[in-house]
Request: fold
Amino acid sequence: MSLHHRPFVFMRHGETSLNREGRLGGSTDSPLTPLGEEQARAASIHLEHEDWPLIVTSRLARARRTAELALPGREFVSLGGLNERDWGECEGIPLSRQPAYEATPPGGESWDAFQSRVLGTLNQLICEADLPLIIAHSGVFRVIHTQIYGTPYGERIANAEPVLIEPTCQGWKISPFRMHEPVAAMK
Reply:
């Protein structure tokens, strides 16, 4: 399965205590820190003026709270297909001890199952709306990264900084999403 060639905006949730401590959060429902709440509010400058046809988060509280703070009063849908990977017995370990993405952690979700779940959900959403806003997790972004660059490895996406992901003639382009971009022209 591959990512359908349609544009969307992706944003990782604000900082959590596990992020701050450099620990693997996974499916653990860790709340935003005060900084994470501030990051979500600051993202609103880039998001609030768009007429989003669809705003979707994972079902984890950190993604839902980010949406509430970044887009106060806006309706959004929460889907389990966008939840972070379940790292099983590895949840909470230091990131320096994180297993390879392709390895299946003890009691956790395999990379293939995670990719399949995320891609199925993303493809449904990007076909449903012209430019959806998706608020989820770094693992979800790694699935997108794998589709674009052929590997899940690379820099971790920053907290609460929206990016525009759009198809081009040469493949894909990922760029910061900023207020007043000519998004309507891409629809």
User: Anything to note?
Assistant: Residues 111-128 form the longest helix (18 residues). Confidence is low (pLDDT under 50) at residues 182-187. The chain has one domain: 8-186.
